[in-house]
């Protein structure tokens, strides 16, 4: 049963005597002479209209169809007399694989709230918005791999289960096979030697540390996979399970890191505009007007590099009534980042050289002993979209940083070994995949850009 995707069917440059499509009924309406059925298979935003005439062999079957039913249709692809559509399908054969109860089917021809759709996440991919989100996720994934593969980066897979905390925040999901009602205890503490891995283990918050190990053997690498954070945040920008893109470059500096991040963002934004034009127009018209212009302006902008110290000075001079007070040493808030990109510079910027107190232990110390070679890419409309740094490649300095941050160097002996044996300058960054999709589409809630969101109190579907 060879079939055409509806997107290819609608792009046809000529009528077809025989065309087979399969999909789900979006709408059905009847007139005195015809039954009009709109079918979608998820390959594009636009439905194909199937017209069944009174007396046609498929007429009785078509009359019994309901919204949500899955169908397999073979017929002629003909020019449509209706305005706004090029083609319509005149069926010779209509097979119903699975009908849908019209009274209980929750997706009707009306606009449903995103909150409601999250409650039926098993069906929401059939909606226009979620279908468009998933097609864009697919193309951005493709763009990410294409960008790094064209540059000679090696795609690697870092562990999902780990015994170390990359960020040092402790907000990790524990992985255990111990009987929680009968935990082994020694000296008043849980004895993890009895656990599956013989140590306390958790789901990873980042593949960066292992990525560094691989970069210091294989050269430029990238990892793209799921990460997890047990942060009890019910906001529109937080997920408990999300995907991260983390490239790492050997023999690279902070300048190299900034250049790669700018080129990377411009590449994926250009890619999605070129390959998802219909879906992007939908988001521009229905979700966030101006989102296409925003992406295009980023593509054509030259990202300006600004030191954290200069950024703080500029914020202090602002007449803006910020909710969070501005002082040297604070972590920039979204309101600060957006003011810098939208009102002061009016374009993307890269803020570098952050105070070491607010950054992770692995970031390279500057000579001033106050700041580290960190960088955040800030874009209009959202603020930070990429965070990265040059990594600390000096063994003694790295030990001091770990101790200053309350970390036990013995727990990171394997990480420190790469600084003892052939250490080299290296740098990398992380891009939260869902935050990038949220920015590209203009969706307000990050839970609406992943098929099945995991958030505090919710792991349904």
Quick synopsis:
It contains 13 helices and 18 strands. By secondary structure, the protein is of the alpha+beta class. Strands 6-12-13-18-17-16-15-14 form an eight-stranded mixed β-sheet. A five-stranded antiparallel β-sheet has the order 3-2-1-4-5. A three-stranded antiparallel β-sheet has the order 7-11-8, with no helix packed on it.
Could you give the topology of this structure?
Layout: H1 6-10, E1 16-30, E2 34-40, E3 48-53, H2 59-63, E4 70-79, E5 87-98, H3 114-119, H4 128-150, E6 154-155, E7 161-162, E8 174-175, E9 185-186, E10 189-190, E11 201-203, H5 208-218, E12 221-228, E13 241-250, H6 254-275, H7 277-287, H8 291-300, E14 304-307, H9 308-316, H10 334-344, E15 349-355, E16 371-379, E17 383-390, H11 395-404, H12 413-420, E18 426-432, H13 433-441
Parallel strand pairs: 6-12, 14-15
Antiparallel strand pairs: 1-2, 1-4, 2-3, 4-5, 7-11, 8-11, 9-10, 12-13, 13-18, 15-16, 16-17, 17-18
Helix pairs in contact: 4-6, 4-7, 6-8
What would you note in describing this structure?
There is one protein chain. It is built from 13 helices and 18 strands. The chain is of the alpha+beta class. The protein has two domains: 6-110, OB fold (Dihydrolipoamide Acetyltransferase, E2P) (Beta Barrel); 126-169 and 205-448, BirA Bifunctional Protein, domain 2 (2-Layer Sandwich). Strands 6-12-13-18-17-16-15-14 form an eight-stranded mixed sheet. A five-stranded antiparallel sheet has the order 3-2-1-4-5. The longest helix is centred in the N-terminal third of the chain and has 23 residues, at 128-150.
């Amino acid at each position: 049963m060879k079939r055409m995707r509806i997107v290819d069917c609608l792009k046809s440059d000529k009528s077809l005597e025989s065309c087979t499509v399969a999909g789900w009924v979006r709408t059905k309406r009847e007139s005195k002479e015809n039954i009009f059925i709109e079918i979608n298979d998820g390959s594009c935003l636009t439905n194909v209209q199937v017209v069944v005439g009174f007396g046609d062999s498929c007429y009785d079957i078509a009359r019994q169809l309901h919204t949500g039913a899955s169908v397999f249709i073979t017929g002629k692809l003909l020019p449509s007399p209706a305005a706004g559509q090029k083609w319509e399908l005149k069926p010779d054969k209509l097979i119903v694989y699975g009908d849908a109860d019209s009274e209980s089917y929750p997706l009707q021809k009306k606009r449903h709230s995103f909150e409601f759709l999250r409650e039926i996440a098993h069906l929401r991919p059939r909606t226009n918005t979620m279908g468009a989100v998933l097609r864009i996720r697919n193309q951005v994934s493709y763009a990410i791999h294409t960008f790094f593969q064209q540059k000679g980066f090696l795609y690697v897979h870092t562990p999902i289960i780990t015994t170390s905390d990359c960020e040092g925040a402790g907000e990790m999901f524990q992985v255990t096979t111990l009987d929680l009602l009968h935990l082994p205890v020694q000296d008043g503490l849980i004895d993890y030697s009895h656990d599956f891995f013989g140590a306390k283990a958790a789901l990873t918050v980042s593949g960066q540390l292992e990525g560094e190990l691989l970069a210091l053997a294989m050269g430029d690498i990238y990892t793209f996979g799921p990460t997890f954070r047990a942060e009890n945040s019910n906001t529109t920008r937080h997920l408990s399970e999300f995907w991260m893109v983390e490239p790492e470059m050997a023999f690279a500096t902070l300048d190299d890191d900034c250049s790669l991040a700018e080129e990377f963002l411009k590449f994926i934004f250009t890619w999605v505009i070129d390959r998802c034009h219909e879906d992007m127009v939908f988001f521009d018209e229905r979700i966030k007007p101006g989102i296409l212009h925003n992406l295009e302006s980023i593509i054509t902008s030259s990202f300006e590099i600004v030191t954290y110290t200069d950024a703080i000075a500029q914020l202090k001079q602002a007449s803006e009534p910020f909710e969070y007070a501005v002082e040297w040493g604070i972590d920039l808030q979204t309101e600060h980042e957006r003011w810098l990109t939208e009102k002061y510079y009016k374009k993307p910027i890269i803020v570098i050289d952050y105070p070491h107190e607010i950054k992770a232990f692995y970031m390279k110390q500057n000579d001033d002993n106050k700041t580290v070679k960190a960088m955040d890419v800030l874009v209009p409309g959202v603020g930070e979209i990429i965070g990265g740094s040059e990594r600390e490649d000096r063994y003694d300095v790295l030990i001091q940083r770990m101790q200053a941050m309350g970390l036990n160097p013995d727990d990171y002996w394997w990480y420190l070994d790469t600084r003892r044996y052939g250490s080299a300058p290296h740098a990398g960054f992380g891009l939260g995949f869902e935050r990038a999709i949220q920015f590209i589409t203009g969706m307000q809630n990050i839970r609406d850009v992943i098929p099945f969101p995991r958030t505090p109190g919710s792991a349904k579907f």
